[in-house]
């Protein structure tokens, strides 16, 4: 295919996909339908792509992206069911198709018919996953469908190679096939895990998220080609590397995560749209080839119809047979909770069998000749494969939403469980914040004096607590705002600062008192109630009594934060230089890179909070950071009013931040700005940045620990982690500008 034709096909597919995303339609199905219509327009050229291009350059990044987005814990928990679908169902489907086709075409060798069976056996979960996400399928159904699509390609391609060898030799042995498959699995998984481990170690040490993302783009190709070179499955290598790196992503830098998210979404959109458009453009030309062949169109249509019917019928029969076997082997009372699908969920899985990329690529890769002889019935086999791919995409893809709605399969219970998990995780993260603040209290007392340090740290604690309260309001919109108002009322406002705008819970006439001295006294009185717990300057215990698990989490998170800051340059002491604010945090848990945005250069100084980010971040940043710096030196403007557009993140990042606590309960506290930073302000800014690093690292450690214990779902953790990453990026830009010489 000419490069101009490739560009036009890809551009047209992306335009159609963009229109579908805007309207909430299933992009793969619409792209396929539009391509089918366009292919019948007179003058449209024939699009022929080297099948190796699809197998080696399109399939690896699609699988890698899907594996990274998958939950390793869910994948491991459902491994038995995934294996039965990804291996057992593929083999059963391939042999069933081969038997049916051989019965219809007796002169066709069984090995050649098995080639067709291997080509049409693996479903592609792209369309099913898109429909499932939009309609809210339960997570275990989505895990099963996505996990099946990750490993069934390896089974299919291995069986495809074995069948091709059988066509060449005229016979093939089951033992040889089993040995080939075992080698493919062991070598493929081994190569993928080794490469994933190496890239993860390198990613922790890279201080540039752009370079880390570039290595990430090369990873699927390196895994695929390396595994194929040693006789392993390139598909399994890509999947293993993606699962490992996705599971370890919370330990990478926040900037790397923010870069790679939209990057891989773009890659997915481009490759999926191009592939489904290519599938739709192929069918008319295959029909013409078959009409011109000796077999004739009627023969090809018969084989295609029989193959499609076999593929559609075998899947539900297999799913219900394995479910029945599980019922007999493990009665409901002895089955692990959440392990088995319900009858309705099984029906959805049975109907979600659309074919896609691998079927297209493998069908196109069927050789024209083998051992100097024409491949038997090649045109017929290719037409049958394309008919199955297009037929299942249109038939099952278009009717799957109706099936889901009819069966009333939803995820309401999971949504409630996710909300409870998120609330518990936010409370645990706040406990970790309190533990870090308690550990740092002696250091701050030594540097600033007991009274000033205590007031500053108490205000910082209240600022972080407000974030947890705001997030809880997302989970329960009826949450009373009274507690938050009490905390806000206890925060002193610098002299000369303007009154804040009324919040959602505050009426126009219900303004808080603005006398600075009264507020300072109120904050000190509140702090005095915690003096017994903090009487010893070197007592690291938190002020609140925690249960054993929460205390262990808080202590472990504080230790992780200590290691993070130590590896970044050590804590900031009085008269010390502190950590380099422009350096990468190369540490085991969190290694954030430089901000992707260049901060504005018109602010900073005397404890003000130049809002260098979007309005949604600025209000809270000014509220928190102005208080923190003001406490340390007796002045702090607390400016968080808006800010200019130079530090505004792009639309995607602002959209992501909008779903979390960063958009809720914004308390504006306008103030004045100064023009320069004194040395004492720089030292205090470095000290606060050091504390910020500890607090962020501690919260991430809590999320990872709860995920690893199964107390926080992977999807919920990643959503909370992204929220934290966006806030971390905004805070980093603000503090870096403040301490710039």
TrEMBL record:
Domain Cation/H+ exchanger transmembrane residue range list: 20-404
Source species: Cellulomonas marina
Subcellular location: Cell membrane
Spans annotated as Disordered: 495-687
InterPro entries: Cation/H_exchanger_CPA1, Cation/H_exchanger_TM
Transmembrane segments: 27-44, 85-105, 111-136, 181-199, 229-246, 267-287, 299-321, 348-366, 386-404
Sorted UniProt keywords: Cell membrane, Ion transport, Membrane, Sodium, Sodium transport, Transmembrane, Transmembrane helix, Transport
Name of the protein in question: Na+/H+ antiporter
Biased composition (Polar residues): 672-687
GO annotation (BP), single: regulation of intracellular pH
Topology term for the membrane: Multi-pass membrane protein
UniProt GO molecular function: potassium:proton antiporter activity; sodium:proton antiporter activity
Main location per the UniProt record: membrane
Chain intervals with Basic and acidic residues compositional bias: 509-547, 614-655
Gene Ontology CC: one annotated term: plasma membrane
Compositional bias segments (type: Low complexity): 548-569
């Amino acid at each position: 295919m000419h490069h101009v034709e490739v560009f036009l096909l890809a551009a047209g597919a992306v335009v159609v996909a963009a229109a579908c995303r805007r309207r909430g339609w299933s992009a793969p199905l619409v792209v396929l339908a539009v391509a089918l219509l366009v292919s019948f327009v007179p003058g449209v050229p024939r699009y022929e792509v080297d099948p190796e291009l699809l197998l080696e350059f399109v399939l690896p990044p699609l699988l890698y992206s899907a594996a990274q987005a998958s939950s390793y814990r869910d994948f491991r928990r459902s491994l038995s069911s995934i294996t039965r679908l990804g291996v057992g169902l593929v083999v059963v489907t391939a042999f069933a198709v081969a038997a049916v086709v051989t019965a219809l075409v007796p002169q066709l060798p069984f090995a050649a018919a098995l080639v067709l069976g291997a080509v049409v056996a693996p479903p592609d979960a792209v369309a099913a996953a898109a429909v499932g996400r939009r309609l809210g399928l339960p997570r275990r159904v989505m895990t099963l469908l996505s996990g099946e699509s990750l490993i069934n390609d390896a089974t299919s391609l291995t069986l495809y190679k074995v069948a091709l060898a059988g066509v060449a030799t005229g016979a093939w042995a089951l033992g040889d096939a089993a040995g080939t498959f075992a080698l493919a699995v062991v070598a493929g998984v081994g190569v993928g895990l080794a490469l994933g481990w190496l890239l993860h170690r390198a990613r922790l040490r890279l201080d540039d998220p752009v370079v880390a993302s570039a290595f990430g783009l090369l990873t699927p190709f390196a895994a695929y080609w390396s595994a194929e070179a040693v006789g392993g499955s390139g598909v399994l290598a890509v999947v293993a590397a993606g699962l490992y790196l996705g599971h370890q992503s919370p330990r990478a830098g926040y900037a790397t995560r923010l870069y790679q998210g939209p990057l891989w979404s773009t890659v997915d959109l481009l490759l999926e749209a191009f592939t489904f458009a290519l599938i739709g453009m192929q069918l008319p030309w295959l029909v013409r080839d078959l009409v011109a062949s000796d077999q004739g169109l009627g023969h090809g249509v018969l084989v295609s119809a029989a193959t499609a019917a076999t593929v559609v019928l075998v899947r539900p029969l297999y799913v219900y047979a394995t479910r029945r076997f599980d019922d007999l082997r493990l009665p409901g009372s002895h089955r692990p909770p959440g392990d088995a699908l319900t009858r309705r969920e099984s029906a959805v899985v049975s109907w979600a069998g659309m074919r896609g990329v691998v079927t297209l690529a493998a069908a196109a890769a069927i050789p024209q000749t083998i051992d100097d002889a024409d491949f038997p019935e090649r045109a017929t086999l290719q037409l049958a494969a394309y008919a199955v791919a297009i037929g299942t995409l249109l038939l099952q893809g278009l009717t799957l939403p109706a099936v889901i709605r009819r069966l009333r399969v939803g995820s309401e219970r999971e949504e409630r469980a996710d909300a409870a998990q998120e609330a518990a995780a936010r409370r645990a993260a706040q406990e970790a914040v309190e533990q870090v603040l308690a550990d740092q209290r002696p250091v701050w007392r030594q540097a600033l004096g007991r009274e000033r340090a205590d007031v500053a740290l108490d205000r910082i604690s209240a600022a972080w607590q407000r974030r947890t309260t705001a997030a809880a309001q997302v989970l329960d919109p009826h949450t009373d705002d009274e507690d938050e108002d009490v905390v806000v009322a206890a925060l002193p406002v610098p002299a000369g600062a303007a009154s804040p705008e009324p919040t959602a819970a505050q009426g126009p006439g219900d303004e808080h008192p603005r006398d600075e001295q009264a507020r300072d006294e109120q904050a000190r009185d509140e702090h005095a109630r915690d003096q017994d717990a903090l009487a010893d300057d070197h007592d690291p215990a938190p002020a609140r009594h925690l249960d054993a698990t929460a205390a262990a989490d808080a202590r472990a998170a504080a230790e992780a934060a200590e290691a993070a800051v130590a590896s970044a340059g050590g804590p900031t002491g009085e008269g010390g230089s502190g950590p380099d604010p422009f350096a990468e945090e190369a540490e085991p848990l969190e290694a954030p890179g430089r901000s992707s945005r260049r901060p504005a250069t018109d602010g900073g100084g005397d404890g003000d909070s130049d809002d260098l980010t979007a309005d949604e971040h600025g209000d809270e940043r000014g509220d928190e950071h102005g208080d923190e710096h003001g406490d340390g030196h007796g002045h702090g403007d607390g400016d968080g009013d808006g800010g200019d557009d130079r530090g505004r993140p792009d639309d995607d990042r602002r959209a992501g931040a909008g779903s979390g606590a960063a958009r809720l309960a914004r308390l504006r506290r306008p103030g004045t700005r100064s023009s320069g930073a004194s040395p004492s302000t720089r030292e205090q800014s470095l000290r606060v940045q050091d504390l910020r690093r500890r607090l962020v690292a501690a919260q991430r450690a809590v999320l990872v620990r709860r995920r690893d214990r199964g107390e926080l779902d992977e999807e919920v953790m990643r959503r909370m982690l992204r929220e934290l990453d966006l806030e971390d990026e905004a805070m980093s830009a603000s503090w870096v500008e403040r301490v710039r010489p």
